[in-house]
Design goal:
With 241 residues, the chain is of the alpha/beta class. It has 2 domains: 8-181, Rossmann fold (3-Layer(aba) Sandwich); 207-240, no CATH class. 37% of the residues lie in helices and 18% in strands. It has helices at residues 8-14, 31-40, 54-61, 73-85, 100-103, 125-133, 151-162, 207-220, 223-235, and strands spanning 46-50, 65-70, 93-97, 112-117, 137-145, 166-172, 176-181. It has a 7-stranded mixed β-sheet with strand order 3-2-1-4-5-7-6, with helices on both faces. Strand 6 (166-172) and strand 7 (176-181) form a beta hairpin. The longest helix has 14 residues, at 207-220. The protein is elongated and about 80 Å long. The termini are far apart.
Length: 241
Amino acid sequence: MLDVGPSLARQLKADPPQLHAGGAECGGLHWAALEWLERTVQPGWSTLETGAGLSTIVFAARGAEHETVTPEEAEVARIRHECQARGISTDRVRFHVGPSHEALAAWQPRPLDLVLLDGAHGFPYPILDWWHVAPHLRAGGLLLLDDAYMGAVAALVAHLRSRPAWGVEGAVGYRTVIARKLEDEVPPFDSLGEEGVGRVSFSYLPPHRRAVATARHRVFSTRPGRAVVRGLRRHARFLFR
């Protein structure tokens, strides 16, 4: 039996290259997610990621038509050097240097098979990144969300879980969520908490007002409750003055 040796992800794990600023070895995907990426991406797939690093090397090695967004020019040079040292071509990799919310706003869209969002994690950057690329992910395409325990990413995961156009398929490792786009959809313009991110919350109010507002919302957001309001508006208008 032919011994093909360890996978690229395992090779990188055994001897992590220094790709990031300050000599950081690995600030990107967890190893389990990197191995998942290597198993999943097929030659010729159209792929895009925000953030760059070991995942970029894997995309290149798998022969994807890949684009990556990174804010640091020097990081591009280190990734290219590491690929060259390993005999991995970067001819099919296009680097966009700059903040992702700016680079993706100027990006020339193309249909995508897989997107990895692992760039800026502060609010609202993961959501902005998703907003720019989601319409161009093919139906059936995969979305990988890294660092899903962080607030802005967790909010995005909650939104996707609530929408029929998306299926959250689970997690790989302990911090990376896999979602699949099922169909094209424009997100709803408004929400009462029954859809979209999270639930209705009046946590910004003082406790005594919070309880009243929550009870009132639960009553008057229902169909019978709205009918009562309409009746009161017709027959007891003084209550709304």
